[in-house]
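INSTRUCTION: Work out how this chain folds

Fields: amino acid sequence; protein backbone structure tokens

Chain under study, with its fold:
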Amino acid sequence: MKTILSIALVLLALYLVSEAHAVQVKVQEGDFVFSLESVKKLQELTESSSVNGKQNPHLASTSFASVCANPSLPQEFMPLCMQRGASMSLSRLATMPIDICEICAFVACTGC
């Protein structure tokens, strides 16, 4: 019984450490730094404006303006939304490979 309890505690500790570790991953775009969770939310919001998984370049400015106006967008993106050329930065963040960032194999991701 003690062995089972010990294994359960070790597994719980590993789970908690791994969850806390994932929260610390940051993504850098120019002078701005965003949490990985916020970038995931941005990607969810931009999926609705893409066609066949690709952003229409003619609608990029308009669709990212609507993303910036979306109340579901994390507040940490507001300074970027106010910048000139924000649509290009948001486009790069929206197409960033999250799965690679989660293991910190992407140059824009730090905090692993």
Q: What stands out?
A: DSSP finds six helices and three strands in the chain. The chain has a mean pLDDT of 77. The CA atoms of residues 20 and 33 lie 18 Å apart. Helices lie at 2-23, 36-47, 60-69, 78-81, 86-94, 98-102.
